[in-house]
Every structure is written in C-alpha cells, then in structure tokens.
Queue: 2 jobs
Job 1
Amino acid sequence: MPTYILGIESSCDDTSASVLCDGKVLTNLVANQEIHKSYGGVVPELASRAHQQNIIPVVNQAISLANIEKNQLNAIAYTRGPGLLGSLLVGSSFSKSLSMGLGIPIIEVNHMQAHLLAHFIEDCGEEKPKFPFIGVTISGGHTQIVLVKDYFDMKIIGETLDDAIGETFDKCGKMIGLPYPAGPVIDKNSKLGDPKKFTFTKPKVADLNFSFSGLKTGFLRFVEKASKSKNDFIKSELNNLCASLQYTIVEILFEKINLAVDKTGINRVVFGGGVSCNSGIIRKFQDQKNYKTFFPKFEYTTDNAAMIAMVGYLKYLNKDFSNLKKGAKSRYKI
C-alpha cells in the first residue's frame, strides 16, 4: 500500500502544502506574500494573518492536484519550528485539527533539518548524500554548519554569532537601495561587476562560527564615505558593489567549510536553505576538487512543504509520531 504524507510549512511568510507518496513529490504548492516587499522585510503580524487566509485553499489544492482524497492520507507533517511564532501557530493548529478530524498521526518537523533532508526527495538528484556528511544551512534567518551522522543524528558544530548570511545580503542591499529581498538582486547584478573592485573586511571568528555584523557595518561606512565624495557613486558602481560584496561573503563561507572538512575528515558537503541557490556560492564550491558537494533543486531551496513531507515520511517509517500537546517553537535547535 502506498504511503501518502501531507506536509505543511508556515515558518515565515510562505504558506506551503505538499503531498508525497513514498518519498515522491506529487504536489508542492507555495503561496507567497508580496505585501512584505513594501516594508523592506517580513512583518510578523501580517505574515500570520496571510497564513490564515492561505492555508485552507493551499492544502485543498495540494490534495486535489495529487489526485487523492483526504481519507487516503497516512499522516500529516508540519513545521514545529524554528520560525516566526505567529506563523508557526497557524500551521501547527491547522495540522493538529486536520489530524484529529481524519484520525491520523501528526508528525513534527524541525525546519532546519528539513532543508538538509530535502536531498532525499526522489527527484532531488539521482545520487543521494551518504552519511556522515557536513550539512550547511544558509538562509535569511540561519547560518549553520552541521555534522550529520544519520537522518536524525545531527549536531551543530558552527553557526553565526549575529546576522545570518541571507540577512546580510538583504540588509546590505537595502543600504544601496535594492528592493527586498535583495539577495537575488545582488546575485544577478554581481554577474556584471568586478568582484575585486572593492575590498571589504572579513571578520575573524574562532573555529567554525561566523559573524557578519562587522561586514555589514563596514559595508555601510564604505558606501556612506564614497557617496560623499561622489554623488552618483552607488548608481555608477552598483554592479561592482554587488560583485565585491558577494565575493567577500562567499569567501567567508568557503574558508569555514574548508576548515570543517579538515577538522572532521568528512569529504561530503550538503547545502540547504534559500541562499544555497546563490550562483556565486554554487560556482565557488563546485569548482573545488577536495570534497563532493550537493546542492538541492531550486524549488527545494526556499521554504517549501515538500521537504517537510519528506522528513514526515522518514519519521513515519520509524513510527516517530508527535502529539497534540506539543506547541510551536520559535527557537528549535537541530
């Protein structure tokens, strides 16, 4: 008998629902919230309200397009955390109610684990990562290096002490007038610029941890000083600014991952999270020959329910079910 898992993701500003059958994606729908662009970032209260509006139609459509009935579902997997508490509450409350109504198990999922385990979705590349591997979760809210010994045996061995890598892209982009989210715009503009035109300081942080606040401050001061000397500095040097900033961030990440490989002796590096689709990061790591790298399909890099359903499927096989008493957690360690 086939196993159907409904996945629900609502950790930030995207409402997503997905149906998997034995690890194969049947549907993976995402409702985006465009309203946040005008504010230059995600507004938590607006995000949770939009989730309330979107979750029923998105789930209904995901099930309908999968060509199954609700009573064919074997379990419901939902994002328990980490994320925005109001957004998480919408997804968790809906998931619990639906599981009670259908009389099927509910499975809690750690959002950050899901980013790495998305690689085990059937259509996410023919070659799957072998354990152990070094997991690298890079997104708007997180920057982590994770030692992954098995599906659910993970340990953080390095993380940012302040800003996340995606947050740094967005905040620096805002400083030079780019729209939110600025990361993809910086990536696009960087292809037309000189990555070594401007030099920005790389913060010195011990071991495998990161810090991006100093880079962000240094970038701001550089832009302010240069703009005083030349009124149209940002406009005339936009592509070079984007290229130089992205080059610096990629180099910081590259140095830390190389150190992690040396320290652990593991030669497999698995990326996950929204920033893992950055062309500069992909090119830098695929060009090196010292270890094997895995990057997810584009649709599994950003927040999506297929990765949640995949983790749900793995937990379902182990009968690792949750219960209705467990609440959403804005901070939820791997």
Note: The domain at 133-295 is CATH 3.30.420.40 (Nucleotidyltransferase; domain 5).
Job 2
Amino acid sequence: MTSSELAPTLPPLPAAGSCALPHLGVIAACGEDAAHFLHNQLTQDFALLDMQHARLAAFCNAKGRMQASMVGFKTSPQEVLLVLRADLLAQTLKRLSMFVLRAKVKLKDVSAKWQVLGAFGSDPLLATPWTLTPHGSAWQVALYPAAGVARRLHLLPANEALVTTNVDLQDWLLGEVLSGVADVQAATYEAFVPQMLNYESVDGVNFKKGCYPGQEVVARSQFRGILKRRTYVMSSPVALQAGVEIFSNTDSSQPAGLVAQAVSHDQHGHWALVCLQTAAEQADTLYPAGSPDSPLRLHPLPYALREDI
C-alpha cells in the first residue's frame, strides 16, 4: 500500500446537530495552584492558558507513555476542567492526586455535574481548533474538523435542559476517527508516546514548557529523529477495536502497528486510526491480526505533520 494508492473518498458527516457523549467524563482541578499544577503534569502549557482557549494534552508516565489524553480549559482563574475518557478517569484522578503534595489544588470527579455533548456545524466564534467560548453557564471548545465538517465539544451543567440531540453517536465516533485526532482509552493505556498519535501536529505538546512526567523521552523522540511510528486514517472490510494489532505482508512475524481508535458505522463501514511503523506505510498489504484476507486502506490525514518544531 503505497502513498500513490491512498484512498481519497471519505464518508459524509452530518453538517449540523449534536449528540451526548457518554464515553467521556470530567475532572475538576480547583484552587489557586490549579493551572500551575496541571502545567507541571501534562504535555501542554496550562500556566499561560487564558479563558479564550482550551488545551489538548497528554498525561504520561516516566517513560513518556500516555496514560490519558484530555481537553482542558479554565472556567475561572482558579478552576480547570479536564474532559477525558470515562474508562480512564478514576485511575487518572488517583495518579494525578499523588502529585498534589503541598500544591493548593483539589482534584475531583465532576462528571455528574456536567453533560458532555459533541456538535457538528460551524460557529463564527470557534473558527480555530481549541478556541473556547462561554454560553451562559455552558462551554464550547472548537475541535479539529472531520471530512470538512466543523466539530465542537459542549459542556452543559447537568441541571440545565438538554439541547436537541439529533445526531447518532456513531456519526460522532466516525468524526473522531476522520479528524485524525485519537484519544487514549483503556485498551491503549501506555501504548504510545504523544508523537505516535501525531500530538505534536495537533497542538497536544508544548516543547518550550518545563518538565512533566516523561518530558525527556518526549523531547528526545522529537529532536533526535528517532520516532518510527505515526498515526494514520484507515478503512477496513472488518470491524476493528482499539488495541488490535496490525500486520504487514512483508513481515507477518511481528505487528507493524496498533489500532488507536475505531468505529463501525451502519452506513459507512469500519474506520480506524492506526499507529503504524512509518516504514510499513509502503507495504503492499496491511491487515488486522487474525484477518490476513482483510486488507486495510490508507486515507490522507486531514492535517500536515510537523516534522520539525
């Protein structure tokens, strides 16, 4: 499967509408040291975060492996909300809490206080990814578009009436894959360093900030040119799941990649974000473990990779 054989066609997404996102939860960091504390733990700069922008960030172990990914933003000078996969929330909260020590910050699961929604459609105030806008007591974050359609993350207080949800969840999950921005979930815990998911190219890593767990490994991967894996958009004739290994016909003895995120859509089939060895991009055939007769198709990323920061 060479670059000249890229499959150009992407399935259409709804031009507008929203749906609830039950797979996401929310952590609140509250206190005068909230932003500074998160700045010292995550891959992005929270110390200089204003209230007009959000951050995509990763929480890594000492070896630079991602234990969680999240979208974070300030709701006040002393509160930061982190939206992340619900299946990793409890353990992420526990590990973050271990580093609080004397910092003036309290961390807690506030998922029950918020409704998390995904919305398709343009908003003039949210033209750039990671732009943040308040709507009364609700918040909207611009995400990376998918198949040319703008996407937004909404947080609405749980006690407020739910806005109309007229989009199926599988459409939103397909949009997540087509956006090229994967998140970390339980099946991929500690499977990737941030650049393997292209996080340096979608504003998920700040290389100018100070230390955080795994910072030396992440920086070394970037500046010494030793990164050998990237994430790609792929379609498949069979259903895929996060954590499934991908093999190449040139070497069936060891996996060439790992599924980072996947969706099966009733109308548009099976799609995935696959973290792949860059050398395997030129393989004639890539296939999921156990399905050598089910070749994957490579599709162009919707953004440019930043090879040099």
Note: The mean pLDDT is 92.
